[in-house]
Amino acid sequence: MALWRPGLIRGIKTSVPVSNIQDCQSYLDHCKFNEASIQSTIFRGTFYELVTKKFLQNQLNCKSLVRAGGAYDNGVDIYGKWDLSSYWNHAVSQISEKEKTLISPRMFEKSTKPILRISREFYEHFTRVKQPKHQISLKSDIDILVQCKNHDTKIPASVVREMIGVYHYHVTKKEELRRTIMFLISPKPLTPQGVRQVDTAQIPIVHCTLTPLLPYSTKKNDIYDLENWGGGILETVYLNGFARSLLQGLQIESQMELLKAHSRRSIIN
To answer: Is the peptide bond before 17 cis (omega within 30 degrees of 0)?
Structure first.
């Protein structure tokens, strides 16, 4: 667990060998060797976790990701870091020098202090603003917990409630709440009740609908080559109010819209 702050992830164990597989092609190789069915629920769930991991790394700039899915994951399928520095670099590049002189932490909403307000990167650009004693790095101090739900139906409120419980199990300190984001990744959207549950949650939640990978060919040998799979398209992104407040000033949602347009034109491979 060296990739994480000590103590944040509690009681996650990994089993051999599937839990140690961290990429799509390695899992396909494993399935080919063991003659595992790609139609099984286990395959669909595991493969979707690996597709999600690839998406988070390549598209959202997440780092040090570990797929921990399995019987002993305590509700966390993937965990790691979210490098927000690129979002901030883009956002600050849109601010004129005159506007920079008007920047103050008082401009932020007071309901939930945003990550920017306690980040080193913010005060590197706005040196005249009084700095807080304890600062974090947008590049390396933002943690993520990820749940993947490759369901054929919309995600109900019960799944969201379970996810909130998982978050509170792992995030036990107030300071961790301000730098730990919960991701829910699924091919299907939330039910109306699920949306309400996400909106009222007092934790930061980002829900992405991501299509699963599907094989182009049904030939036996072809299905074990990742080049013959397509999908992994980002369709929607939704941040609840807590997440929007926490990520205020980083222009996450506008950059996500650009990512959606790009994702439709590309395939994870």
So the answer is: yes
Express each pLDDT in 188-233 by its tens digit.
999 999 999 999 999 999 999 999 999 887 666 688 999 999 999 9
User: Over the stretch 126-168, which tens digit does the pLDDT of each residue have?
Assistant: 666 566 666 899 999 999 999 999 999 999 999 999 999 999 9
How many C-beta atoms lie closer than 10 Å to residue 171's C-beta? 21
Query: What is the domain partition of the chain in residue ranges?
Result: 18-94+135-264
Right CATH for 18-94+135-264 from 1.10.8, 3.40.50, 1.10.3470, 3.40.1350 = 3.40.1350
Tokens of 245: 């407040």
Residue 223, classified by CB atoms within 10 Å of its CB into exposed (0-12), middle (13-18) or buried (19+), is middle
Q: What is the pLDDT of residues 1-46, one digit of tens each?
A: 334 555 566 655 443 467 788 999 999 999 988 888 888 999 999 9
> What are the phi and psi torsion angles at 169 (to 5°)?
-65, -40
This prediction has a pTM of: 0.85
Edge-to-edge strands of the sheet including 180-186?
A: 62-67, 78-82, 143-148, 180-186, 205-210, 234-239
Which residues lie below 8 Å from residue 74, measured CB to CB, with a gap of 6+? Answer: 9, 10, 11, 12, 166, 169, 170
